[in-house]
Amino acid sequence: MYTSEVVPAQIGVWWTRAITLRFAGICPVHAWWERAMDAVRTGEIDPAPLVSHRLPLEDAALGYELFDTHRATKVLLRP
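Structure (tokenized):
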């Protein structure tokens, strides 16, 4: 979900790669939050596959690096 009014973009890169950008509006997170959480609670939705790494809190810097370099989808830090 992107909430800024400014989008820093390199239009030339999009142009040369023939990338199409479509704006579909803002996601109404608050409108769907309770329903989504209920689906997780009942087991209808399993968020576990989104987590690629579970690390101890002292490895937080590694977790941030993994996410920043796109080697992780979601990192959970254990205290």
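The radius of gyration is 17 Å. The CA atoms of residues 4 and 26 lie 10 Å apart.
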